[in-house]
């Protein structure tokens, strides 16, 4: 259904087009970038990514049926000593393919890299508490809520709460054994 390939400079314009407001940028990237998203910010983002032993792998998501780039996801803060990482920047950018399980496939593919290739023990992520569809997707893949970070991000005059979620290696393995 999908495949992941490294995110590259030629993909910058498409990603910038998907990020159409400060609120959407904050949901997508947390405080990593400032609105409006620019090629320079993205260049800094991938400068040290996608190399052997990088602490970040940034991916474009390709819909295999059409070859179209439909999204973005990253595996970052890779800590090989503690065997941990963080999923971030999850985006199904093309609206016509939303609601088809693409997000779940993206997460499963990144978790396969994290647990089966990088041999990590723990993968975490953060999601704003009002993003119910994302939370449901993360839970379907096996993530568990660990705690609510109250008023963790400020947007305009408002503060947003964020759920911290994670999945452990044994949870991933037992989930996949049940699927077989």
Write a brief structural summary.
The chain is of the alpha+beta class. It has a single domain, classed as Gcn5-related N-acetyltransferase (GNAT) (Aminopeptidase), CATH 3.40.630.
Describe it for me?
- The protein has helices at 12-18, 22-29, 39-46, 102-117, 132-141, 169-179; strands at residues 2-6, 57-63, 68-79, 84-92, 122-128, 144-155, 158-168.
- It is α+β, with helices and mostly antiparallel strands and 180 residues long.
- The protein has one domain: 3-Layer(aba) Sandwich (Aminopeptidase), CATH 3.40.630.
- Helix 4 crosses helix 5 (132-141).
Which descriptors apply to this entry?
180 residues; alpha+beta; Aminopeptidase; seven-stranded mixed sheet; 7 strands; 33% helix; globular
Number of strands: 7
Mean pLDDT: 96
> Per CATH, what is the topology?
Aminopeptidase
Number of continuous helical runs = 6
CATH class equals: Alpha Beta
SSE string, helices as H and strands as E = EHHHEEEHEHEEH
The largest sheet is: 7 strands, mixed
Q: What percent strand?
A: 35-45%
Q: How would you summarize the topology of this molecule?
A:
Elements: E1 2-6, H1 12-18, H2 22-29, H3 39-46, E2 57-63, E3 68-79, E4 84-92, H4 102-117, E5 122-128, H5 132-141, E6 144-155, E7 158-168, H6 169-179
Parallel strand pairs: 4-5
Antiparallel strand pairs: 1-2, 2-3, 3-4, 5-7, 6-7
Helix pairs in contact: 4-5
């Amino acid at each position: 259904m999908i495949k992941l390939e490294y995110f590259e400079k030629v993909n910058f314009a498409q990603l910038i087009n998907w990020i159409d407001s400060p609120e959407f940028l904050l949901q997508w990237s947390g405080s990593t970038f400032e609105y409006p998203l620019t090629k320079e910010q993205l260049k800094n983002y991938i400068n040290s990514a996608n190399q052997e032993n990088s602490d970040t792998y940034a991916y474009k998501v390709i819909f295999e049926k059409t070859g179209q780039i439909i999204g973005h996801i990253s595996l970052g803060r890779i800590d090989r000593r503690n065997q941990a990482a963080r999923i971030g920047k999850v985006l199904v950018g093309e609206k016509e393919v939303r609601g088809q399980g693409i997000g779940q496939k993206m997460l499963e593919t990144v978790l396969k890299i994290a647990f089966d290739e990088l041999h990590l023990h723990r993968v975490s992520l953060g999601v704003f508490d009002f993003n119910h569809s994302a939370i449901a997707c993360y839970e379907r893949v096996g993530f568990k809520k660990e705690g609510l970070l109250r008023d963790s991000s400020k947007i305009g005059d408002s503060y947003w709460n964020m759920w911290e979620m994670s999945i452990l290696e044994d949870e991933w393995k037992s989930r996949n054994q049940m699927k077989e």
